[in-house]
Amino acid sequence: MTKLVRLLPRFSMQAFLMLSVCITIFPFVWVAMMGTHSRSEIYSSPPPFYFGTRLLENYEKLLEVMPFWTVLGNSLFVSVLGTIVTVLFSSLCAYGFFAYEFRGKNIVFGVMVASMMVPPVLTLIPFFLTVKFLGILDTHFALWFPTSANAMGIFLIRQYMVTSISRDLLDAAKVDGASDLRIYWSVVLPLIKPVLATLGIITFIALWNNFLTPLIVISSPEKYVLTLALRSLQSVANTPWGAVMLGTFMSMIPLLIAFLFFSKQMMAGLTAGAVKG
Length: 277
What we know:
Blueprint: H1 2-34, H2 39-42, H3 55-65, H4 68-99, H5 105-114, H6 124-134, H7 141-144, H8 151-164, H9 167-175, H10 180-191, H11 193-209, H12 212-217, H13 226-233, H14 241-271
């Protein structure tokens, strides 16, 4: 009886974790199941809680109502290129805040951090006017470049550098004759791979799931990204929900692949600095 009482908290925690996992993955399983049913089956009561037989039919319908692979390529192009440039620019800015001393450094850094508190929706009109003035309206360039050096990424990388890189290491590299760019590329970057992976995944997910920016910037259907293209199907009469659900599930696959490949580095980046010594 005493042993059972000691094991009860462990079993309770495991049961809670299993319940949390089921709640988390249920939307993904639900979307996958609905992608194998027709519109009438989805609207039936009760809805089908099983995989159907209309997968091929929904796939053909998806290709009929939208150029799925084209918009998937657009999303991949924007997300991958935007992630690479964001990680590069943010790490360069963070390195500047970490390695150099200049007048007004703390003020500039404080203003940058404070800008993170501004809701993005408040900047939509200035963002649209700026994009229009620069002549990049209705281009993929406008979806990723304006946010390539974002405050959150700079702050995240800079804090990681403070907790994981010794300034003595930078001084030693300078004594050996290494240039600032060489120190950044050969000394600093290898030491901050976990936080780079963390920022990369966060940025990739944000660009991949971004709907509001493409909605106000992109007007040509051939330049649509997945979020915008899938949303445009919902305005069609008799929306083919089976095809929409299938397209939605297929759009999740790149995110799952990215997380599986970089999850270990992401966890290391998020927990860095929790224990210092």
